[in-house]
Structures are given as structure tokens and as C-alpha cells.
Design a protein that fits this description.
6-stranded antiparallel barrel; alpha/beta; Rossmann fold; 3 domains; 7 helices; Elongation Factor Tu (Ef-tu), domain 3; globular; single chain; SH3 type barrels
């Protein structure tokens, strides 16, 4: 796609991906501005690192305080999901509400930019969201909620590169971010804290029964349903003749249901809040978690999905993303609700 060489704002974290994104756009002749969103109190390091990169590249650096919006939209969504028996993907929701929400409002309305760019590994071709060249780093799954308007104004310079190439570009150009560590999964939970310790500190321990899926027998006690997710094996702490896995959680009854590996298999589920990036099509490839391969399925307009072959550990709260039958570009996606 041929872009006008106009003003582009890059979402800058101070990491290697957003740094190389800025560099590549500069070399293509754009007027580049770096924008760092302050999401939480732990964002101070990101602001400092991004400022260093912008200074070394000779570009303007803007800072946008998003702490209140991030807490109200993303953190609250994360907390509420776990407390209602769901396993959320906060990055998906952050992309929708913050990065292509509050940030793009500022980018286009306040900074007057022509385009918005990020260091995501994905490609946009003819207003279709394609998987990245580096399939191990592909982030198209996380971006299913982008609209056609979003796609038309977004640039992903890293989509045609692999991670090793990005790091090499950073080193050759002496970018300060070349050796920075990768960001963690849940950015607002600072190590050594974990999701479980974060939720326990926030809501306290709420013990309840662990029930066997087939027999209905009480096998033990748990420390809060939010400590368990579908398919989990570790941490159940119950002696049994066969390995036990979490089959489901019942937050209303405060119960955790466990069973054998075969009990995790399911062929059908429903999704809600579906976003169609492209025209509806019944036959699709569906990906139900970031690191799992897409599998062939059919989908109805009402959000009923049926896999051709049973799939293990379909998890309410996670995203289900629909790709074309060649598994190249995103058709749409939604949030798994019932299995």
C-alpha cells in the first residue's frame, strides 16, 4: 500500500519493537511523533525509555496520561471477568478501548496525524488484517476488534519482518532499546506478583468445594475460583488415580469442577461482542487462544461456532478469532461466552 509521506504517530513503549517501528517510518520519509501512554504507576520506566529513543531519533515525544481510563476500562474488565468465572485476555480489551480508543482519539483529534503506527507483528493489505511474516510473533489474534476505519489509518511496519531482523536493525542503528526485555503478559501486575496473588490480595480467599465432573463427589477444597482456569492441571493439589484437570468453574456456587483430559473436549460454543472486519462467511478457521493453532469450523451470524473436530479446553472469556480458510487474514472475532 502506498501511503502519503505525512504525519504518523507511533505508540512508544521504549521497547525494541516500537523503536524500530519509528526508525523505519522515519527512513520512509514520514514526520514521526512518539506517543507514550501512561497506563499505571509502573509506566514510569516506559516513559523514560521511550524518551531516550525519541531523543536519539530526533523526534518529538508526547505523553498521554491514561491511568484513569486504563483503570476504569481494562483493569476493571480484568477483575470483573475473573470474579464472574471468566478468563479474560486484557491485551485484546486494551487494544480495543485504549490503543485504538483513547490513544487514537488523541492521535487524530489533538495531534492531527494522518496515520497511527504500532510495533505489532501483523500486516494490513487492502484493508485486511493479515498474519505476520513471523508466525511465532504474529499478533493478528489480539487485533480482531479493530474496525475498517482503524485498519485504514494504521501502519504495522514490522509485519514483514521477523523478530531477529528487528533486533538486528536496532543494534545496527544503536537504538538504546536493542537489548530491552520483552514486556510481561499482564502489564499492570508487577513481578513477583502473579495473577493469583493479585486477585487474592484484591478479593481475599474464598474457599469452596472441588467437585468431580462425572461422579459429583467432593474431592477437596479450593482457595477461590479465580485461581483456576479451564484446562489447568497444576495447583489442584488432589491425589487421584488419574491426572485431574479443571473442566469448569461455577462462581455462583463457588465450585471448581475437575475431571479427566477427555472431559475437556468440546465441539461447540457461542461468542458475544462479535466484530466482523470482513464480510460474514460461514466456513472459517478459528483460533481460541493466542498460542493455539486455528482449526476448521462453521459459524452462524448469531455467534454459534462448531468445530469440525473436538477441541480441548475452550475457555469462556478468551477471544475466538475467525480467519479465512487459508488461515491468512482475519474475518472477525468475539469473546467466548458459553461452551
Amino acid at each position: 500500500m502506498n501511503y502519503k509521506k505525512n504525519k504518523v504517530v507511533v505508540a512508544m513503549s521504549g521497547g525494541v519493537d516500537s523503536s524500530v517501528t519509528s526508525l523505519l517510518l522515519l527512513k520512509q520519509g514520514y514526520e514521526v511523533i512518539g506517543l507514550t501512554g501512561v497506563m499505571s504507576e509502573s509506566s514510569e520506566n516506559a516513559v523514560q525509555e521511550a524518551a531516550k529513543v525519541c531523543n536519539s531519533l530526533g523526534i518529538r515525544h508526547e505523553i498521554l496520561d491514561l491511568r484513569e481510563s486504563f483503570a476504569d476500562l481494562v483493569v476493571k474488565y480484568f477483575d470483573n471477568s475473573y470474579m464472574t468465572g471468566l478468563t479474560p485476555n486484557p491485551c485484546v480489551f486494551c487494544n480495543k478501548t485504549i490503543k485504538w480508543g483513547k490513544m487514537t482519539e488523541f492521535v487524530f483529534n489533538e495531534l492531527g496525524a494522518d496515520f497511527y503506527a504500532t510495533g505489532h507483528y501483523a500486516r494490513i493489505i487492502d484493508n485486511k488484517l493479515y498474519r505476520a511474516k513471523d508466525l511465532k510473533k504474529d499478533q493478528s489474534y489480539m487485533l480482531f476488534a479493530l474496525t475498517q476505519e482503524d485498519l485504514a489509518r494504521t501502519i504495522f511496519p514490522l509485519g514483514e519482518l521477523n523478530k531477529a531482523e528487528v533486533k538486528e536493525i536496532a543494534k545496527k542503528n544503536n537504538l538504546t532499546s536493542a537489548n530491552n526485555k520483552e514486556s510481561q503478559d499482564v502489564c499492570f501486575i508487577e513481578p513477583p506478583a502473579t495473577t493469583q496473588s493479585y486477585l487474592t490480595n484484591k478479593f481475599g480467599e474464598k474457599s469452596g468445594e472441588i467437585i468431580h465432573y462425572k461422579t459429583g463427589k467432593v474431592l477437596g477444597m479450593h482457595r477461590g475460583t479465580f485461581n483456576y482456569t479451564i484446562g489447568q492441571r497444576k495447583g489442584i493439589c488432589i491425589a487421584a488415580p488419574e491426572p485431574l484437570y479443571v473442566i469448569s468453574t461455577d462462581h455462583k456456587e463457588n465450585k471448581v469442577i475437575v475431571g479427566g483430559k477427555e472431559d475437556l473436549l468440546s465441539s461447540e460454543f457461542t461468542v458475544e461482542n462479535v466484530n466482523w472486519q470482513q464480510d460474514f462467511t460461514e466456513n472459517v478457521m478459528v483460533k481460541i487462544r493466542y498460542n493455539s493453532p486455528a482449526q476448521e469450523a462453521t459459524i452462524s451470524r448469531t455467534g454459534h461456532v462448531k468445530f469440525k473436530e473436538p477441541k480441548s479446553a475452550i475457555t469462556p472469556g478468551q477471544a475466538a478469532v475467525f480467519y479465512d480458510m487459508d488461515n491468512e487474514y482475519v474475518i472477525g472475532g468475539g469473546i467466548i461466552r458459553t461452551v
